[in-house]
Amino acid sequence: MTQLDQTFAALGDGTRRAILARLAQGETALSEIAEPFAMSQTAVSKHVRVLSDAGLVAVAKRGRTRYCRLNAAPMREAASWLEAYERFWRTQFEALAEHLAQNPETPGDDE
Asked: Please, which pLDDT band fits residue 12 given cuts at 50, 70 and 90?
């Protein structure tokens, strides 16, 4: 699986996106990451492992505590890939706006 595939696969789950949002605020102990979720710490650890395997999270063990830190570099690659589609849709919407401006009649105006 390519890095881009791993990134999108990891981002495909809402829990993992929530974990990344939390880590965007700074390095956090795994036990603190698990607190807001209605699941076991083991389940959260599995989500963190997927994020780590995708390169989105770095995990470091200090003493008995594991700390997680965001690595946003893979998301930059995904954002760059999506940027081409953003340009495509922006062009489509601009063309639609121009068409509507040139053709102001709307269905139902015949009445």
From this structure: very high
- For residue 43, the tally of other CB atoms under 10 A from its CB is 13
Query: Rounded to the nearest 10 degrees, what angle do helices 73-102 and 3-11 cross at?
Result: 70
CA–CA gap between residue 81 and residue 12 (Å, rounded): 16
Say how far apart CA 109 and CA 99 lie, in whole Å: 17
Q: What is the length of the chain? A: 111
Q: Does the pTM exceed 0.85?
A: no
The ranges assigned to domains in the chain are 1-102
Q: Determine whether domain 1-102 maps to CATH 1.10.10.10.
A: yes
**65 strand-pairing partners:** 62
As a whole number of angstroms, the distance between CA 71 and CA 6 comes to 14
pLDDT digit string (tens) for 28-72? 999 999 999 888 889 999 999 999 999 999 999 999 999 999 999
